Amino acid sequence: MQVEILSPEKKVFSGEADSVQFPGTTGSFQVLNNHAAMIASLTNGTVSVKTGKETLRFRISGGFVEVLNNVLSVLVEGAEEV
């Protein structure tokens, strides 16, 4: 699935992923390939993007994620790779 993590300042990440784990406002959740369409709000925490054997982690400060047609659009207030 295609993942785009965007902040107001820059494109934080763009690429293919096998799974992504998010810090949702009502608890953490994971999105896998071919997930149903959804929109969710995010809280401060860590987004983990698993790409094959590698896992990238980004510390975010709130935002939203939209899942549609195997594309994850993640809009965050701020993010940095950890």
Distinctive features:
five-stranded antiparallel β-sheet, 82 residues, single chain, 10 strands, ATP Synthase, domain 1, mainly beta
- Whole-number average pLDDT? 96
What fold name goes in the CATH topology slot?
A: ATP Synthase, domain 1
Number of domains: 1
For the largest sheet, list the strands in their spatial order.
2-1-9-8-5
Name the CATH class. Mainly Beta
The CATH superfamily turns out to be: F0F1 ATP synthase delta/epsilon subunit, N-terminal
Q: Count the helices. How many?
A: 0
In whole angstroms, how far apart are the ends? 22 Å
Class from secondary-structure proportions: mainly beta
Number of strands: 10
Shape label: globular
| Share of residues in helices | under 10%
Summarize the main sheet: 5 strands, mixed
- H/E series: EEEEEEEEEE
- Radius of gyration, rounded? 11 Å
CATH architecture term? Sandwich
β-strand percent reads over 45%
Low-pLDDT runs:
none
Summarize the structure.
The protein has strands at 2-6, 11-16, 19-24, 27-32, 38-42, 45-51, 54-60, 63-68, 71-76, 79-81.
Task: Chart the SSEs and their pairings.
Blueprint: E1 2-6, E2 11-16, E3 19-24, E4 27-32, E5 38-42, E6 45-51, E7 54-60, E8 63-68, E9 71-76, E10 79-81
Parallel strand pairs: 1-9
Antiparallel strand pairs: 1-2, 3-4, 3-6, 5-8, 6-7, 7-10, 8-9
What can you see in these coordinates?
There is one protein chain. This protein is an all-beta fold. It has one domain: Sandwich (ATP Synthase, domain 1). It has no helices and 10 strands. The chain has a 5-stranded mixed beta sheet, with no helix packed on it. A 5-stranded antiparallel beta sheet has the order 4-3-6-7-10, with no helix packed on it. Strand 3 and strand 4 form a beta hairpin.
